[in-house]
Amino acid sequence: MKIYVNQIPFEGVTFEEGMPASELDLETEIIKFREPIKIKADVSRITNAVSAHIKINTVLYTICSRCLEQIKIDLNKEIDLNYPVDKSVQVIDLNPDIREEILLDYPIKPLCNPNCEGLCPKCGNKLSEGGCTCGST
Ligand SMILES: [Zn+2]
Ligand SMILES: [Zn+2]
Question: Nearest ligand to the C-alpha of residue 127?
């Protein structure tokens, strides 16, 4: 999301955008997105600064770190960003800061549920749902 400083009225303005995850380079080996990331920015300006209150809404698709089942995680976040500006600044690119905030919320060990017991080391089936068929549990 880019903000053109001279398009911000003194009473402020709201921008909304659906940004593809690829545009922010957010996908990893295990974190995927299926829909654009919703960004809503309330932007206001004083003489030498622009401030933006930003709401980020998206859904991450990843896998349980214990049983490898696919899971989705809602990511909803509100942040405040401030940018000093002088007459030479015409455009502010919010993307690097938005990207950073989303990355901060990536789960380190995502779980399909907090009680997930993972997979049976012998038969490879899920332990928590009685899926183990080898009887070793
Ligand atoms: Zn699991
Ligand atoms: Zn088993």
Answer: 2
Ligand 1 centroid to 111 CA: how many Å?
5
**pLDDT tens digits, 38-88:** 999 999 998 889 999 999 999 999 999 999 999 999 999 999 999 999 889
- Comparing CA positions, the residue from 113, 99, 123 lying closest to residue 39 is 99
> What residues contact residue 75 under an 8 Å CB cut-off, 6+ apart?
56, 57, 58, 59, 60, 102, 105
Closest-approaching ligand to the CA atom of 115: 1
Q: How far is the CA of 98 from the centre of ligand 1 (A)?
A: 29
Whole-number Å distance, alpha carbon 119 to ligand 1 midpoint, is: 8
**If you measure from the C-alpha of residue 58 to the centroid of ligand 1, how many angstroms do you get, rounded to a whole number?**
22
Of residues 82, 16, 7, 27, the one with CA closest to residue 51: 82
What's the pTM value of the predicted model, to 2 decimals?
A: 0.86
